[in-house]
Amino acid sequence: MPVPTRVLLADDHALVRRGVRLILDAEPDLAVVAEAGDGAEAVALSRTTDVDLAVLDIAMPRMTGLQAARELSRRRPGLRILILTMYDNEQYFFEALKAGACGYVLKSVADRDLVEACRAAVRDEPFIYPGVERALVRTYLDRLHRGDGLPERTITDREEEILKLVAEGHTSKEIGELLFISAKTVERHRANLLQKLGMRDRLDLTRYAIRAGLIEP
């Protein structure tokens, strides 16, 4: 018998992890060998556990699935990554690909699509569920017709990390310790965020972070 693909599963909801694990462990060629409650824990587990595939939720505490995907892509170039999300969102899809993911699966159809997405990832093939393929092609063609390009990100990866932690209520000192930068550097990034986004305070940043899917309401 071939060795099953070893899966690292990251989602901050234990019930979701349990459901996804049941789906994957029911297949002879897939085995969940590690579970994480957030992106930072997933990155840490990837250092100590031998895994072939990471399945990451987008909206998680401390570090989102997209942030974790970027970090895992840097640290483990051979690791396959899938994004599992409730967000049927074109911007997230492009960000997932940019972060190193090879597939994008909606939680609402995970029981139908996730196993095939995992197998496609192992074959080094991209996976997008059929509905989003049609929508993405249509939107892309509309953009070309109007002479528009693909959507640009408003903020940098580092600013996104700081925005998320600010919205979760961390102080500048705590954020600096988590990201290994000074509190003064955190404050400078925070000021840049307020200016870029045209916002006034932490409450505005928190609302933006919720809309962007960085944290859950």
From TrEMBL:
Q: Which Gene3D superfamilies does this one have?
A: 3.40.50.2300
One of its GO biological process terms is:
phosphorelay signal transduction system
Q: Which CDD domains match?
A: LuxR_C_like, REC_NarL-like
PANTHER family in the cross-refs: TRANSCRIPTIONAL REGULATORY PROTEIN NARL-RELATED, TWO-COMPONENT RESPONSE REGULATOR
Alphabetical keyword list: DNA-binding, Phosphoprotein, Transcription, Transcription regulation
The reply to whether Phosphoprotein figures as a keyword in the UniProt entry is yes
GO MF term list: DNA binding
DNA-binding as a keyword of this entry, yes or no, is yes
**Protein name per UniProt:** DNA-binding response regulator
Q: Which residues carry this modification: 4-aspartylphosphate?
A: 57
* Response regulatory domain location: 6-122
InterPro entries per the UniProt record, alphabetical: CheY-like_superfamily, NreC/VraR/RcsB-like_REC, Sig_transdc_resp-reg_C-effctor, Sig_transdc_resp-reg_receiver, Tscrpt_reg_LuxR_C, WalR-like
Domain HTH luxR-type, residue spans: 148-213
